[in-house]
Amino acid sequence: DTGVSQDPRHKITKRGQNVTFRCDPISEHNRLYWYRQTLGQGPEFLTYFQNEAQLEKSRLLSDRFSAERPKGSFSTLEIQRTEQGDSAMYLCASSLVAGGYGYTFGSGTRLTVV
Amino acid sequence: AQKVTQAQTEISVVEKEDVTLDCVYETRDTTYYLFWYKQPPSGELVFLIRRNSFDEQNEISGRYSWNFQKSTSSFNFTITASQVVDSAVYFCALSDSGAGSYQLTFGKGTKLSVIP
Question: What tens digit of pLDDT does each residue of A24-49 get?
Answer without folding.
Answer: 999 889 899 999 999 999 999 999 99
